[in-house]
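Bug report

Summary: structure tokens for Exodeoxyribonuclease 7 large subunit differ between web form and batch submission.
Environment: batch mode, default settings.
Steps: 1) Submit the sequence below via batch. 2) Compare with the web form result.

Sequence submitted:
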Amino acid sequence: MNSESQFSSPVGAGGDAVVPVSVLNRAIGTMLERSFPLVWVSGEVSNFTRAASGHWYFSIKDAQAQMRCVMFRGRAQYAEFTPREGDKIEVRALVTMYEPRGELQLNVEAVRRTGQGRLYEAFLRLKAQLEAEGLFDPQRKRALPAHPRSIGIVTSLQAAALRDVLTTLARRAPHIPVIVYPAPVQGAGVSAKLAAMVEAANRRREVDVLIVCRGGGSIEDLWAFNEEVLARAIAASEVPVVSGVGHETDFTIADFAADVRAPTPTGAAELVSPQRVLLLRDLDHRHATLARGFGRMMERRAQQLDWLARRLVSPAERLARQRTHLQQLSVRLASAGARPVRDARARFSLVQMRWQRWRPDLTPHRSKVDGLGERLDRALLRQHERHIARVETLAARLEVLSPQRTLERGYAALLDAQSGRAVRAPSSLKPGRRMTVHLAEGSADIALSDVQPRLTDGF
């Protein structure tokens, strides 16, 4: 849009338009805001001031130029850090005009340390890669031991986080030994050294849980805990690992790979150590419960002992009682054994007498049976002779009608070789057809070469 359309002004004596300064500055600011979108600008902080209203005023510069900046309180309160003189930063800002003074400035919406954007992108890429491989899967994370026999710490010996962790452990669980695996927590090649200490703790098998920690700092300061080598070492650890890196708002790759993330190093120490006071209180409670249970058991045993004592009898008296009882049983057994025998003999005699009285006379019946047997033998013999005579008659008739006897008289049987059926008509005889001829002394396979059928009434 033409800038002349944004304002109207009186015309001077020479016919040229006269524009107020405020209107001109407003038009220039509008053009700047429309021409330059939000952009990231890098430089060094200079003349930083925090106003009583909460707004930030500063400049960013490089070797050739500088630019004034303003960051209003609504944006500044969400910044992760407060810039200091000489800091290398990057600002996301809109190019504007401060109309009262006619000065060009950057209206800052976000601020970060130089290189933080690239580091954050690398952080996101590595996090996505390891998450896709399953290193952050909750199923593979292990629970922390409720009562560890020893606790390991991987951090720098000069780190303030180590003092906080040791102080917390000494206060909560002074009875648990602590082993420190020293490694630097900032600088080049730190991740490999931290990973080596994690592997050493697993190799030595001298701790039940491991804390990997350091104090807070910028993303550059914490970058050693965002390296792949440390994340894989933590994920492969057989000892449960608690990550306590930075402050509660700081997240690193090590936090995701660890079995448990603590908001701070002190929080990590509290997670792995049971509170000694609570343990002693629980121990006293269990001791009292055990004592009460033991006392009740002793009372029940004493009562049972009294009851058994009342039932206790002298061995001699007990033997005399058993002897008397045994004699009574012997008498009862003898009388009980004799009575069934007597009853059985009486019943047997009675049955024998009744049987003798009702016993039948078999002599006449036996003679009759013998006569019937002789008649049956003679009848069977006569029937057998009739059957033999009939079989001989049928055999003679069969011999007369035997095909073999017909063949012996000079006849022959002609059968088709394929179907096995007898050939009866001359029309069935065709050249090349295979036949089987049965004679009196055997058979032969033939093939017809020349056939002249001739119908006759007989020989």
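Above is the batch result. After comparison, the two runs are identical; trailing whitespace caused the diff. The radius of gyration is 61 Å. The CA atoms of residues 353 and 359 lie 10 Å apart.
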